[in-house]
Design brief:
Mean pLDDT: 93
Radius of gyration: 17 Å
Number of helices: 7
Structural class: alpha/beta
Oligomer: single chain
Helix content: 40-55%
Distance between the termini: 31 Å
CATH class: Alpha Beta
Strand order of the largest sheet: 1-3-4-2
CATH architecture: Alpha-Beta Complex
Order of helices and strands: EHEHHHEEEEHHEEH
Strand content: 15-25%
Largest sheet: 4 strands, mixed
Length: about 200
């Protein structure tokens, strides 16, 4: 696994991940045939069209971008881990699969951990705290680094709500031992990537 140090949300970052399976879309890439087909259409369309920066603009996204540094700072204070920024993580074994963590932790230049932050509405934030688990809709996003590399040892899921004056921070840490299906996910991901690449090639060559 290697880093591409470009600014997240920049045009260069959008182009670098355009048409890729990402942490966000990994669940669909590993989903049912119908769900995979929908993602395939989207990825092939991305590869055949220009980047649309407007895709990253919505009130929820803007709030998340604004609060992300505060969420990371709060998580660092709570966990004692200092995270650094990076643009993309990639691995040559999985072409067109990239993840964009909110922060990473390195040992001797190797990425061994990281952090994924969310800034949901207050109701969702309390739900996450009470369930004391990574929300199902984000589980594959947190699993993605473990799928990409055996070097990854841990990842933090963080929910942050600055409006909650009693419990603004929720952290759930996962390790490789929490996932028993990594090899299965890798095989299914590679198969999906091959099918997607073939579909694109058939339309363009």
């Amino acid at each position: 696994m290697y880093k591409v140090d470009i600014e997240q949300k920049s045009i260069e970052w959008l182009k670098a991940r355009h048409g890729n399976v990402t942490g966000t879309s990994l669940a669909s890439a590993l989903g049912t045939p119908a769900v995979q087909r929908t993602l395939l259409y989207s990825l092939v369309a991305d590869r055949m069209t220009e980047v649309q920066p407007s895709d990253l603009s919505s009130p929820a996204i803007e709030r998340g971008n604004e609060l992300e540094p505060f969420a990371i700072k709060a998580a660092e204070a709570e966990s004692g881990i200092d995270f650094i920024e990076t643009g993309l993580l990639l691995d040559d074994k999985y072409p067109r699969f990239s993840i964009s963590p909110d922060g990473i932790f390195e040992e001797d230049g190797v990425v061994v951990g990281g952090i994924e932050t969310k800034c949901p509405n207050s109701k969702k934030h309390v739900e996450y705290i009470m369930k004391d688990a990574i929300p199902k809709e984000y589980l594959h996003q947190v699993k993605a680094p473990f799928v990409m590399s055996d070097d990854v040892k841990f990842w933090l899921f963080v929910s942050f709500d600055d409006r909650n004056y009693e419990r603004p921070l929720f952290i759930k840490t996962v390790t490789r031992e929490d996932f028993t299906d990594i090899d299965e996910c890798r095989a299914k991901l590679l198969e999906f990537l091959d099918v997607t690449n073939d579909a694109h090639m058939e339309l363009t060559f």
